[in-house]
């Protein structure tokens, strides 16, 4: 399970979250540095200012870090602070970015474009693989449908579909897939039961004050509760949980 805030806002916010998700059993941290926001006047992330925060927190917790890359020119600098690159839903079709990530060695978490067919997503992964990097992890984060009560519609069939066609692991992001805090734990558990290799979950110390995506963030207590249910489902499937 990879967990952390949508965006890194400050040392205090990121470090508090990192300690809490580690204690609850997360294996890695997430946290946006460069954000791809739909609205141009929304918070765009701390950018380079977050690098020192990430260095300190990953050192203090010993946890690996995943963060989104939005531009091929960020590869060098971001490599210094992340253990895996995330390609956001809006960039799944950015083939120049994918090719650049194929030319370096760190794992790439490739989110599904919210209007992409499963086969287009698999083709996007091939852009990375053809350049020499086969360290690819799919992440389903919901697709756009006619339903407006949720932010997106979680396509859980992506899990067995990808598993039958590719050797790469697949994560589910129940946070962006629902956009609603109260729906996140159930969808996370359903994903584990469906055979997902992991979850990518947004957690914030005070979701009501989050700079981005507060409506879908879990607080520490709810996250810890979800984690204990994740372990129970894994136990029933004879699968171990990997913690840090
Ligand atoms: C995120 O994980 O912070 C994010 C922006 O997700 P997506 O690209 O799936 O919208
Ligand atoms: Mn987010």
Terminal CA distance: 10 Å
Classify the beta-strand content into a percent band: 5-15%
Strand order of the largest sheet: 1-2-3-4-5-6-7-8
Bound molecules: phosphoenolpyruvate, manganese (II) ion
| Number of helical regions | 9
Mean pLDDT equals: 97
Number of strands: 8
H/E order of the elements? EHEHEHEHEHEHEHHEH
Q: What about the largest sheet?
A: 8 strands, parallel, barrel
| Proportion of residues in helical segments | 25-40%
Q: What shape does the CA trace take?
A: globular
Low-pLDDT runs? none
- What structural category arises from helix and sheet content? alpha/beta
Radius of gyration: 16 Å
Give the SSE layout.
Elements: E1 2-4, H1 11-24, E2 28-30, H2 51-61, E3 65-68, H3 75-79, E4 84-87, H4 95-102, E5 108-111, H5 118-130, E6 136-140, H6 158-165, E7 170-172, H7 174-178, H8 184-193, E8 198-202, H9 220-236
Parallel strand pairs: 1-2, 1-8, 2-3, 3-4, 4-5, 5-6, 6-7, 7-8
Helix pairs in contact: 1-2, 1-9, 4-5, 8-9
Please, could you describe this protein's structure?
The structure is a single chain. The protein is an alpha/beta fold. The protein is 37% helix and 13% strand. It has nine helices and eight strands. The chain has helices at 11-24, 51-61, 75-79, 95-102, 118-130, 158-165, 174-178, 184-193, 220-236, and strands at residues 2-4, 28-30, 65-68, 84-87, 108-111, 136-140, 170-172, 198-202. α1 runs parallel beside α2 (51-61), α1 packs parallel to α9 and α8 packs parallel to α9 (220-236). The N and C termini lie close together (10 Å). The chain binds phosphoenolpyruvate and manganese (II) ion (MN). Phosphoenolpyruvate (PEP) is lined by residues 6, 32, 36, 88-90, 111, 141, 176.
């Amino acid at each position: 399970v990879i967990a952390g805030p949508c965006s890194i806002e400050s040392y205090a916010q990121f470090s508090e979250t990192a300690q809490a998700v580690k204690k609850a059993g997360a294996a890695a941290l997430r946290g946006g540095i460069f954000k791809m926001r739909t609205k141009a006047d929304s918070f765009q992330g701390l950018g380079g200012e977050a690098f020192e925060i990430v260095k300190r927190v990953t050192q203090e917790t010993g946890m690996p870090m995943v963060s989104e890359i939005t531009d091929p020119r960020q590869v060098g600098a971001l490599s210094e602070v992340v253990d895996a690159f995330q390609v956001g839903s809006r960039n799944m079709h950015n083939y120049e970015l994918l090719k650049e990530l194929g030319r370096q060695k760190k794992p790439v978490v490739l989110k599904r474009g919210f209007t992409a067919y499963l086969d287009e997503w698999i083709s996007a992964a091939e852009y990375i693989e053809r350049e020499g990097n086969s360290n690819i992890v799919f992440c389903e984060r919901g697709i756009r449908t006619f339903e407006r009560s949720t932010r997106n519609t979680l396509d859980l069939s992506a899990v067995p579909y990808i598993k039958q066609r590719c050797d790469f692991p697949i994560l589910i992001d129940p946070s962006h897939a629902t956009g609603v805090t109260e729906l996140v734990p159930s969808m996370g558990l359903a994903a584990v039961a469906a055979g997902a290799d992991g979850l990518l979950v947004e957690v914030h110390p005070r979701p009501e004050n989050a700079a981005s995506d507060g409506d879908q963030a879990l607080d520490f207590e709810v996250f810890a509760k979800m984690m204990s249910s994740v372990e129970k489902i894994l136990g029933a499937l004879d699968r171990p949980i990997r913690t840090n």
